[in-house]
Amino acid sequence: MRILVAEDEGELNRLIRCTLEDEGYAVDAVLDGQSALDYLQAGEYDAVILDIMMPKLDGLSVLRRYRSGGGRSPVIFLTARDAIDDRVEGLDSGADDYLVKPFSFAELLARVRVLLRNKGEQKSNTLTVADLTLDLSSHRVTRGGKEIELSSKEFAILEYMMLNEGTILSRESFRNHVWSWDYEGESNVVDVYIRFLRKKIDDGFEKKLIQTVRGSGYMIKG
What we know:
Layout: E1 2-6, H1 10-22, E2 26-30, H2 33-42, E3 47-51, H3 59-68, E4 75-79, H4 84-92, E5 97-100, H5 105-119, E6 126-129, E7 132-135, E8 141-143, E9 146-148, H6 152-163, H7 171-178, H8 189-201, E10 210-213, E11 217-220
Parallel strand pairs: 1-2, 1-3, 3-4, 4-5
Antiparallel strand pairs: 6-7, 7-8, 8-9, 10-11
């Protein structure tokens, strides 16, 4: 899942980005509101973490312009302002959640998981396809009761596929949701990771869950 972080405090920005990346998310991070709006208008994000008080353009203005242009990604506002009127204004501007500084990173991660569940119409932290299960909070993956060890990137790809069970996902779609904009690796990286996942998810099982759709991409189907 790909997340945009817009926070003008450099150290907090770095800590949020590192925390999210440690959880397997692809992260783009910016330090001002205008850059945040530019990124939102140029790309697609599964979630946005947006500070309110930023230089060049404040978070409220960023979100209003993004929503008025049709942007639908879920947004968590970060702010040091705890007044009820500020919270109401943020939510009325189109935010989905509101977190007041200082906050715990565990709570931030939990709120991100809620946004992603709601976006994918999931009501549980556990995703299931046939006998394959993925726990979003513990990062535990099992198939047929057998635990499967995945790298953070493998986990992110599998999560994206399971959230879109039965949907054909193009290679470009994988790159947009699982890798950040600054990725400069091999062009066949999606195919490489799908091969890794097949060995771990499907090898040894009669029913193959990961399917190739020739000329289109990949999907997972129970």
